[in-house]
Amino acid sequence: MSAEKSKPRALVIGGSLGGLMAGIESLYAGCDVEVFERSPRVLDDRGAGIVMQSETLHMLTHRCGLAEDETGVRLRQRQYLGHDGKPESQQYMPQLTTSWGLLQRALRETFPEERYHAGCELLEFTDAGGAVSALFADGSEVRGNLLIGADGSRSTIRQ
């Protein structure tokens, strides 16, 4: 048996931030990984102002190859606005913030393009103890050893 065939095969359902992170970490763990995203198009930017957590910073610097100063913007304070939109107070709060678009682009550039499949809506899956099968809306079926659900609020997996 070749080394490639002996690798556990992971199927990640959902190709946004969580799915890409799971896919990248699964690759680093030695799995044969495919990511399947329901949307057929490139996922849109979702805005800025995400406070960087240490795990996300580690992903961007150690897995995606970004320098820390490329991952976001350093802030020194947080400003609080009143109901009228005018500043009411400020608080010293150093933190690194980033954007959804930066995260998505860095993760997509890191995860192998040929293993990312857009336009793949999961209809159902079966678990046969150590083997899983995923059936998609286009009629295709993919088999693996592990199914990772990262398919968001309308999750087929969670149902």
Structure description:
The chain has 4 helices and 10 strands; from the N terminus they run αβαββαββαβββββ. The protein has one domain (3-149): FAD/NAD(P)-binding domain (3-Layer(bba) Sandwich). The mean pLDDT is 91. It is elongated, with a radius of gyration of 19 Å. The longest helix has 12 residues, at 17-28. Helix 2 packs parallel to helix 4. It has helices at residues 3-6, 17-28, 54-63, 100-110; strands at residues 9-13, 32-37, 48-51, 73-81, 87-99, 116-118, 122-127, 132-136, 141-144, 146-149. The protein is an alpha/beta fold.
List the helices and strands and how they pair.
Layout: H1 3-6, E1 9-13, H2 17-28, E2 32-37, E3 48-51, H3 54-63, E4 73-81, E5 87-99, H4 100-110, E6 116-118, E7 122-127, E8 132-136, E9 141-144, E10 146-149
Parallel strand pairs: 1-2, 1-10, 2-6
Antiparallel strand pairs: 3-5, 4-5, 7-8, 8-9
Helix pairs in contact: 2-4
Q: What do we call the CATH topology?
A: FAD/NAD(P)-binding domain
Structural class assignment: alpha/beta
**Total count of strands:** 10
Largest sheet: 4 strands, parallel
Major β-sheet strand ordering? 6-2-1-10
Total count of helical runs of at least 4 residues: 4
The residue fraction in helices comes out at 10-25%
Radius of gyration: 19 Å
Q: Could you name the ranges where pLDDT drops below 50 across 5 or more consecutive residues?
A: none
Please indicate the percent range of residues in DSSP E strands (runs of 2 or more).
35-45%
CATH class: Alpha Beta
Mean pLDDT: 91
**SSE arrangement, N to C:** HEHEEHEEHEEEEE
Shape: elongated
CATH-level-4 superfamily name: FAD/NAD(P)-binding domain
Number of domain units: 1
Report the span from N to C terminus: 37 Å
